[in-house]
UniProtKB/TrEMBL annotation:
Nucleotidyl transferase domain span: 24-250
CDD domains, per the entry: NTP_transferase (cd04181)
One Pfam assignment: NTP_transferase
Xref: Gene3D superfamilies: Spore Coat Polysaccharide Biosynthesis Protein SpsA, Chain A
Entries under SUPFAM superfamilies matching the protein: Nucleotide-diphospho-sugar transferases
Protein's name in the database: NDP-sugar pyrophosphorylase family protein
Length: 255
């Protein structure tokens, strides 16, 4: 099942960046059970960021358009009709096609299904999870991907640990208390650059992060792009994430 929504507004041109993709897939089918009651009547990407009046997917599409994307395929699932209705009525900065899985295909199968609707199957493409609110240069990530001749590139974030930590010395003395420090580990930020050949490597059914990604890693064809210093990134998983996102937005805008 598919739907096309075309905006009257023109998308930013990517002509000055011929190597960067101009098409993207947004995975927006999650149920968002940890975001209840916000997701009782809407899919996770339709939850509004407090203080903006715009749902998560609205922020994502605006960001993609600002990075030169002209066509996006939105993969819907839970309460798909709510998301489709909003897309049909919104003034969008790019062309959007929606697809709905008739039966669950898994993350990899769903990504492959959505990729079939990309307008240029012979060109590279971006993908992003539908619960990510971020801002950084996708063009820089695409250049990083091309320089390494990768088949797939993952954006890597360093999230903050949600608890305060205690610093001690070798004698067991407490030296300091540190509130929500950055994690020592990088995590998958849920934003990707894929070469055209990647879609054919995806499973028809199942999880690509357990099949395709490990295979590419063994072959040294999977790259990791650390988000630039100061880049904003937050995965919206819980009500606390919404509160933190609103607080961070207010700090940025001085409200």
């Amino acid at each position: 099942m598919t739907d096309d929504h075309r905006s009257d507004s023109s998308a930013p041109s990517a002509a000055a960046f011929p190597a960067a993709p101009t098409q993207a897939v947004v995975l927006a089918g999650g149920q968002g059970s940890r975001l209840r009651p916000y997701t009782d009547d809407r899919p996770k990407p339709m939850v509004e960021i407090p203080g903006t009046g715009v749902p998560i997917i609205g922020h994502q599409l605006a960001w993609l358009a600002s990075e030169g994307v002209t066509d996006a395929v939105v993969s819907c699932g839970h309460l798909a009709e709510v998301l489709q209705e909003w897309l049909a009525g919104a003034r969008l900065p790019l062309r959007v096609t929606t697809v709905v899985e008739e039966e669950p295909l898994g993350r990899g199968g769903g990504l492959k299904y959505a990729a079939r609707r990309l307008p240029h199957p012979d060109r590279p493409w971006y993908a992003t999870n539908g619960d990510v609110w971020t801002r950084f240069s996708l063009r820089e990530m695409a250049a990083f991907h091309a320089e390494r001749d990768a088949v797939a590139t993952l954006a890597l974030a360093r999230p903050r640990i949600p608890w305060g930590v205690v610093e001690t010395n070798e004698f067991g003395h407490v030296l300091d208390f540190i509130e929500a420090p950055p994690s020592p580990y990088l995590v998958n930020a849920g934003v990707y650059v894929f070469s055209a050949e990647f879609a054919a490597l995806l499973p028809d059914l199942g999880d690509h992060e357990r099949t395709t990604f490990p295979r590419l890693a063994r072959e040294r064809r999977l790259a990791g792009f650390p988000l630039p210093q100061g880049a904003y990134w937050r995965a919206i998983d819980t009500a606390k994430d919404l509160t933190e996102a609103a607080r961070e937005l207010a700090a940025q805008t001085g409200r």
